[in-house]
């Protein structure tokens, strides 16, 4: 079982105590330099036992209270892009850009709506350009991609000193995200566990790794049912492109452990074809034992709007992932669809759970899969060859979530997996969920009486999403 690391302080001290640091270092090292493989089982179990006291009693406090964990995944937004100016959070209305020759200048962060007519590159080449050795001062050297959404070109195409990437979404479009964040807990120190785009990010949210994959596959759909010849780049220990590999993996996921523990799970995802012949935009499409096994038909659910009907009918699994249709995706470059429905979609899913019999036993995490190339003032720490990536928003919603609170603990995608693992005494899967901080007292208070739920979506919005017809377009193509 994995019962948590001591909360990492805002000062960026990752682990409390030299002895604990030594245990973690030896554990990660066992996979080899630059490896994101699973920890050695014996060492992982020893680490979990050693850390049983380090979570402030959070696991014991929530024992029996949390029986349902829901991860609602949105697309491609940095923390600063959605929550600039949020009270108590670290944001900035100015950024630093470079000319590629060592010169920098400050630039104002300007308003750009969800339905803006361009996308921003957010692959390995874009991360390396923006990161600039840790200075994070060259976001303007990321790729600029006109709408409609297309697969990005291999190299940077941005004009030096352009400022497209230094932007925030206007408050009138993010008001529902802000309402949820103000009611419950907003994490302003949540980072990607990977440094690149959506394919690997979604793998990290189910497995804590992507077998050294980076960027996106060269064909769609992404996974085991792709056309012959589908490949994806790998990433080397020095964060450069390595050899290509196939995109049908056999590594264990959190679903593997849930199955073994006789716990239930579902992944709600949009269809990419009216016939649904394998065309479901799910991270489990790339996991052979699911895609080529019976769980593809029973546990991967499409269309994603079924989450609303299932909850209303009395069904919610122990662990649930939910991803949007393109029309409700926060992915930029959707101007040809006029898409800004993401916040209302998310609040409708939250409302379905909040108004149901499951509310008092549920923890909901709303998270964005990658930074989307959008400027963020906080440079991520270099903890591994493929992480950490840039800061993304996290909203924790639960009857036991702290109210009207901003959590400043340094979290990553692995923290969500660690929460699942510690809730049901499951072992860590890989480096990211082994090292990740557990969600502690700055997010949850299990001693408080369950907070009654108040809906966020309007009745018209809830009804619209309950009966929405699928677009059959992927919510994220890069």
Kindly describe this structure.
It is a single chain. The chain has 478 residues and is of the alpha/beta class. The protein has 15 helices and 19 strands. It has an 8-stranded mixed sheet. A hairpin with a 5-residue loop joins strand 2 and strand 3. Helix 6 runs parallel beside helix 12 (342-354) and helix 11 (306-312) packs parallel to helix 12. The longest helix has 13 residues, at 171-183. The protein is globular. Mean pLDDT is 86; it is low at 1-54 and 149-158.
Q: Roughly how many Å is the radius of gyration?
A: 21 Å
What is the averaged pLDDT score?
A: 86
Q: In percent, how much strand structure appears in the residues?
A: 5-15%
> What is the count of β-strands?
19
Shape: globular
Count of individual helical segments = 15
C-alpha termini separation:
34 Å
Helix content: 25-40%
Major sheet: 8 strands, mixed
Low-confidence stretches: 1-54, 149-158
Q: What is the strand arrangement across the widest sheet?
A: 14-13-15-1-16-17-8-18
| Secondary-structure class | alpha/beta
């Amino acid at each position: 079982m994995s019962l948590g690391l001591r909360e990492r302080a805002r000062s960026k001290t990752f682990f409390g105590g030299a002895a604990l640091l030594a245990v973690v270092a030896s554990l990660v090292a066992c996979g080899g330099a630059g490896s994101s493989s699973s920890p050695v089982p014996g060492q992982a179990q020893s680490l979990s036992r050693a850390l049983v006291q380090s979570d402030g009693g959070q696991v014991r406090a929530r024992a029996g209270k949390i029986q349902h964990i829901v991860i609602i995944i949105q697309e491609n937004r940095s923390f600063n892009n959605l929550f600039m100016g949020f009270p108590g959070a670290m944001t900035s209305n100015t950024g630093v850009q470079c000319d590629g020759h060592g010169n920098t200048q400050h630039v104002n962060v300007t308003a750009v709506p969800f339905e803006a007519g361009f996308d921003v590159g957010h692959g390995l080449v874009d991360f390396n350009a923006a990161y600039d050795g840790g200075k994070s001062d060259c976001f303007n050297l990321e790729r600029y991609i006109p709408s409609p959404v297309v697969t990005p070109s291999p190299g940077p195409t941005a004009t030096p000193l352009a400022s497209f990437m230094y932007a925030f979404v206007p408050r009138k479009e993010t008001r529902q995200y802000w309402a949820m964040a103000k009611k419950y807990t907003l994490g302003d120190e949540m980072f990607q566990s990977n440094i690149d785009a959506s394919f690997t990010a979604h793998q990290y949210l189910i497995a804590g790794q992507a077998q050294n994959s980076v960027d996106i596959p060269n064909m769609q759909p992404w996974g085991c049912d792709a056309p012959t010849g589908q490949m994806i780049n790998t990433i080397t220990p020095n964060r450069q492109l390595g050899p290509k590999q196939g995109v049908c993996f056999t590594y264990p996921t959190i679903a593997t452990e849930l199955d073994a523990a006789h716990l239930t799970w579902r992944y709600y995802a949009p269809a990419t074809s009216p016939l649904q012949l394998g065309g479901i935009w799910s991270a489990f499409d790339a996991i052979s034992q699911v895609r080529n096994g019976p769980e593809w038909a029973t546990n991967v659910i499409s269309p994603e709007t079924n989450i609303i009907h299932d909850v209303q009918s009395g069904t919610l699994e122990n662990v649930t992932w939910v991803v949007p249709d393109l029309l409700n995706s926060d992915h930029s470059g959707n101007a040809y669809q006029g898409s800004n429905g993401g916040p209302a979609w998310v609040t409708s899913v939250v409302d379905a759970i909040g108004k149901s019999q499951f509310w008092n036993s549920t923890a909901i995490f709303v998270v964005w899969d990658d930074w989307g190339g959008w400027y963020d003032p906080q440079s991520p720490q270099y903890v591994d060859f493929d992480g950490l990536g840039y800061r993304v928003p996290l909203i924790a919603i639960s009857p036991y979530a702290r109210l009207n609170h901003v959590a400043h603990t340094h979290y990553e995608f692995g923290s969500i997996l660690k929460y699942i693992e510690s809730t049901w005494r499951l072992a860590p899967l890989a480096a990211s969920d082994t090292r990740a901080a557990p969600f502690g007292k700055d997010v949850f208070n299990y001693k408080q009486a369950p907070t009654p739920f108040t809906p966020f979506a309007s009745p018209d919005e809830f009804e619209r999403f309950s009966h929405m017809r699928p677009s059959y377009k992927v919510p994220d193509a890069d």
